[in-house]
Design a protein that fits this description.
This protein has about 475 residues and is an alpha+beta fold. About 55% of the residues lie in helices and about 15% in strands. It is elongated, with a radius of gyration of 61 Å.
């Protein structure tokens, strides 16, 4: 390491308590030179240690702590200490600073703004020239990819026309071919051809068009190829950083991605090319196996999830049907309840109207009822049987209108809401003595018949019949008899 003899090295080490790092620092601190040899390797250090003279018996052995410390100092980079190269750089910098004089340092600092201004001006002037150069000369027309599928089909058709046998090329873009290989979990071989290079033409003719290679590629690989003189081929060649042609690359599905696993040189015969393809596939087959297992696991999870979703959808449909039936029942119940409320309201209104009319009829009756012993020709004595079987009687004047008889019957507590009065024998209605007929006559302002004109004689027995319509509610009979 130091190019010193054994005695000098032993003295330096003994002066530094046999600490190798400290001894090295002490030696190179004053004697460091650019021409000094680099630090020895492990083999060199071992050989120097073997060739070093033995320690005299009179010299004491180093203590255990010294030995441990020396073992630790043997790897200064692990401790974060500077290496020999860094120590050499520091000493060189220190020596250069010491050799510089004050005028030189002052001149250096004075020239620094001028250097900065010059570099700035150079960069400003250089930028537009560099931009124009790239715009005019550095732009490759193949960078403009307009019809990638057409580029691939052009190469595939040209290959089929040049040779008798042709691999089963994927006639689509490189991205679509990569997606297809990823979907099918198969290896993808990419062949990039350059028609301007004779070596590429020879490899295409002797290897790629060989029936043995084609048979192996058809069984084990998906094949995609394109020419470098087309935009799509040029794009893929830049993607793979292709520097020589022809280029054969192998891609494999790894962790749900298509990744480049190998590039094949053009120094192959058909036999060695097929052998190399087999080796690559054998080396990376575990990636495809893992991908297949992962896909099967995902498909199983998706199947389970689909079954769960289907069961959930069925349960949801059942719940929706139950909810629909429940809502229909609630709507029907609400409709019935509303109908009952409407009917109850109608009954209440009719009852109120009935009571009002009954009170009105009662207020029309006068107390000056003719005496029974009055002139027989001017009075009519009537005995009336009500709907509840009760019998009432009253004497009327022959000149009284028929509504007086109707109001007398209607004013009774058991009278129905609509009624008519009938004769007992022969059973026939009294003319004009009906609630409907009286209401219609009063509405049309027609004159009412008198009792005599209605066919009543001096003494009659009559009965009352309800004419409430059949579409009224069931409680109408209760109202009529209330």
């Amino acid at each position: 390491m130091t190019s010193a003899d054994a005695e000098t090295s032993k003295d330096v080490l003994s002066n530094n308590n046999w600490d190798l790092v400290q001894a090295t620092r002490t030696w190179f601190g004053d004697n460091l030179d650019d021409s000094a040899p680099p630090p020895p390797t492990s083999s060199t250090s071992m050989s120097s240690a073997v060739s070093a003279p033995l320690r005299p018996l009179s010299q004491p052995l180093p203590s255990q702590s010294t030995t441990v410390r020396r073992r630790v100092h043997a790897s200064p980079s692990l401790r974060g200490e500077p290496s020999f190269a860094s120590l050499r750089r520091e000493n060189n910098q220190r020596r250069q600073l010491a050799e510089q004089s004050y005028p030189e340092m002052a001149f250096k600092y004075l020239v620094m703004p001028v250097k900065f201004a010059f570099s700035s001006i150079y960069n400003i002037i250089h930028f537009p020239f560099r931009f124009i150069w790239q715009l005019l000369y550095a732009v490759d027309p193949r960078d403009n990819v307009t019809d990638p599928v057409g580029d691939v089909q052009k190469y595939v058709q040209g290959f089929a026309s040049r040779y008798q046998h042709s691999p089963n090329f994927i006639e689509d873009t490189f991205d679509k071919a990569s997606q297809q290989a990823k979907k099918e979990l198969k290896f993808l071989m990419i062949f990039l051809h350059n028609p301007k290079i004779p070596k590429s033409i020879e490899f295409e003719k002797t290897v790629i068009a060989d029936p043995t290679v084609i048979d192996h590629l058809t069984r084990e690989f998906l094949v995609w190829g394109c020419s470098n003189d087309t935009p799509e081929g040029f794009r893929v060649s830049k993607m793979f950083a292709t520097r020589s042609y022809p280029t054969s690359a192998i891609m494999c599905p790894i962790r749900n991605r298509m990744m480049l696993v190998a590039k094949l040189s053009s120094e192959h015969t058909p036999v060695t090319f097929v052998s190399r393809l087999k080796e690559i596939k054998f080396s990376h087959q575990y990636n495809v196996t893992e991908a297949q297992k992962e896909r099967e696991r995902l498909q199983a999870n998706q199947s389970i999830r689909s079954e769960q979703d289907r069961a959930y959808a069925q349960a949801l449909e059942v719940d929706k049907e139950k909810m629909r039936v429940r809502n229909e029942e609630r709507a029907e119940t609400a409709k019935v309840e509303q109908l009952q409320k409407d009917k109850a309201e109608v009954r209440r209104n009719k009852k109120l109207q009935h009571e009002k009319r009954r009170a009105l009829c009662a207020s029309k009756l006068t107390d000056d009822e003719p005496a029974p012993n009055a002139d027989r020709n001017s009075i009519i004595q009537l005995r009336i049987k009500l709907t509840n079987g009760e019998k009432v009687g009253r004497t009327f004047n022959t000149s009284d209108k028929i509504d007086v008889l109707h109001d007398f019957v209607y004013a009774q507590t058991c009278s129905p809401r609509s009624l008519r009065v009938l004769k007992t024998y022969p059973r026939q209605p009294v003319n004009g003595c009906s609630t409907k007929l009286i209401d219609q006559a009063l509405a049309d302002s027609q004159p009412l018949l008198t009792l005599t004109e209605s066919g009543l004689v001096t003494m009659e027995t009559l009965f009352v019949e309800s004419t409430v319509e059949s579409d009224d509610d069931d409680s109408s009979s209760d109202e009529e008899t209330s």
